[in-house]
Design a protein that fits this description.
Blueprint: H1 3-9, E1 16-17, H2 24-35, E2 46-51, H3 54-63, E3 74-81, H4 83-91, H5 97-100, H6 103-126, E4 130-134, H7 141-147, E5 154-163, E6 165-167, H8 177-180, H9 191-207, H10 217-227, H11 233-239
Antiparallel strand pairs: 1-6, 2-3, 3-5, 4-5
Length: 245
């Protein structure tokens, strides 16, 4: 077990932060760590917006599901950015409109942003900070895009909140290795593992150091799918010139 693996295995989402601010040098290190991540075909199809103005952060917190704790940390918005490469292609007199407007470009932008954000996460946690991904940004994606002046072919994938933890829950148990790991082909016969895991997560929620509850992983995961269908995303992407074929 090395220090990097220990940092990974100790990960928890943090929703209570101290008032300690990030320094300009720390912010630069975090962004540079994100930039060091792998990227599809060297496209780097993402942009990071640092939100340090409370008059911008507060409405984002409101639109992202009324999550007040967002106001307490340092917020980065990770965006899929197809616009940059489209503009460069025009400079080179190349037409990539068919590619940029396709669903694969949308996927590439989201994947690039996600890999970069996970690099930032590991960097932050190695520096003694905590993080929380803010998928709720997509709940208010239209208003947030307007607030951030995003051009066409750019869309927010999620926010990443970074700061010094004031409180941390115990790490959540993950689906057991054999429930996730398949070899050579997909094995559909793993439901019994999931049922057993559900009981383990119920014990976690009942006994954890933070807010206790009587629920399971399945309760949490399915509720998220029920309450956040985001069926407006297709139209949103289409309106921004994306996911059209």
């Amino acid at each position: 077990m090395n220090q990097t693996l220990q940092t990974i295995f100790n990960h928890v989402s943090v929703r209570k932060f101290t008032n300690q601010k990030l320094t300009d040098n720390q912010i630069k290190q975090l962004v540079q760590a994100a930039q060091a991540a792998s990227t599809s075909s060297y496209q780097q199809s993402y942009s990071i917006i640092d939100i340090d103005d409370d008059t911008v952060k507060a409405p984002i917190a409101k639109m992202a599901g009324d999550q007040d704790f967002i106001n307490c940390g340092h917020l980065f918005i990770f965006n899929a950015d197809l616009n940059r490469n489209h503009l460069i292609a025009q400079e080179l007199d190349k037409n990539i409109s068919e590619t940029i407007t396709g669903v694969d470009a949308v996927i590439v932008g989201a994947v690039d942003a996600s890999i970069a954000a996970q690099n930032m996460t590991l960097a932050a946690e190695s520096m003694g900070m905590g993080i929380c991904y803010i998928g709720g940004v997509r709940d208010g994606i239209v208003g947030i895009s307007e607030l951030l002046h995003l051009p066409d072919e750019v869309y927010p994938v999620f926010g990443l909140l970074v700061g010094y933890p004031a409180q941390k829950n115990d790490p959540k148990p993950r689906i057991p290795f054999n429930g996730i790991y398949h070899k050579n082909h997909y094995d559909p016969g793993k439901l019994s593992i999931i049922k057993q895991y559900n009981q383990e997560t119920r014990k976690y929620y009942q006994n954890r150091s933070g807010k206790k509850s009587n629920r399971t992983w399945a309760d949490t995961a399915i509720k998220s799918l029920e309450t956040h269908p985001r069926d407006f995303m297709k139209k949103y992407l289409n309106d921004r010139g994306l996911d059209q074929h």
